Amino acid sequence: MRAIYFCLAIAFAVVVHAEIKTQAIEYKAGEVTLKGVLVYDDAQSSRRPGIVIYPEWWGLTEYPIHRARMLAKLGYVAFAADMYGQGKTTDDPQQAGQWIGQLKQNRAMLLERARAAVETLVAQPQVDPARIGAIGYCAGGSVALELMRAGANLSAVVTFHAGLAPIEPDQTETIKAAILVCNGGDDAYASAAEIETFKQEMRQHKANWQINTYGGAHHSFTNPDADRHKMDNVAYNAEADYRSWRDMKDFFQRQFHVEHSEIK
After folding, report:
1. Residues 10-36: pLDDT tens digits?
2. Is the pTM of this model over 0.90?
3. What is the DSSP track for 134-177?
4. Which one of 66, 202, 221, 256 has the largest count of C-beta atoms within 10 Å of its C-beta?
5. How many C-beta atoms surround the C-beta of residue 16 within 10 A?
6. CA-CA distances (angstroms) from residue 196 to 3, 39, 117, 150, 155?
7. What whole-number distance in Å separates Cα of residue 9 and Cα of residue 174?
8. Residue 180 and residue 254: Cα distance in Å, rounded?
9. Residue among 196, 144, 154 nearest 175 (CA)
10. How far apart (Å, rounded) are the C-alpha atoms in residues 190 and 188?
11. How many Cα atoms occupy the beta-carbon half-sphere of 72 within 13 Å?
C-alpha cells in the first residue's frame, strides 16, 4: 500500500510540475530585430519536434501565440514568428496589406525573415533539429509555402486559408516537406484556377501533398476574432476550425512519428 501511495505521489508531482512556458526571444534577420515567442512544456526533458507559426497579416498578435500554446500542449516546441520587426501588429487592413505587400515584393527579404525564425527555433535546446515543421495562417501560410518552395529543410508544412500562388513563378526548388493545405470551400480568395495551378506545381516537383476543403468555410475560418473586422468573405467557422486542427494533428503525428500528450 505504501508503494502505491509513493507512485501516486510521484505522478501527482509530475502533473503539478508540468507547465507551459512562454518566452519572448529577440532574433535578427539582416539588420532587422525580430521579436518572436517560444512556447514549450517544461516537464519534458527529451528533444521534441519544433513548429514555427507564421501569423496572419496582422502581425504577431495574441492569436498565433495562442496557437503556439496549443501546439506546446500537444508536446511540440512552438515558435510564433515575427515577420515585420519589433513584434509590431496592426488592426488596420490597409496597414496590414501594406506591410505584407512590402515583403511579397521582396522575396529575398521574406525568405530571410522566414528562415531566421526556423534557425531560432532549431537553436533551442528542447528541439530536435531533424524534426522541424511550419504552420501558417492566411498570409503566414503563404510565407510557409514560399519557404517550402525555397527548399527549406522542413519535415512538414500546414497552411490554413492561405494564398497558394508563388511570389515568383518557376522558383520552386526541391520540396522536402510533406504539405497539408486546409482551405475553406466558400473562400472567394481561393480560386479554382489557383488551386489547380498549385496542384500542378506539386505534381511537377513530386511533392507529398494534400488539400483539405471544408464546406461552408470562408477566409480566416480558424480565427474566432475574424468576424470583428466585418470584411467580406472573412468569417470564423467553428466546425472547420475544429476539423482542420484535428487534421493537422493527425498529419503531424504521421510525419513526426509522435504521440500527442494533450495537456489540459
Report:
1. 444 444 456 999 999 999 999 999 999
2. yes
3. EEEETHHHHHHHHHHHTT---SEEEEES---S-SSTT------S
4. 221
5. 9
6. 62, 36, 30, 20, 24
7. 51
8. 12
9. 154
10. 5
11. 26
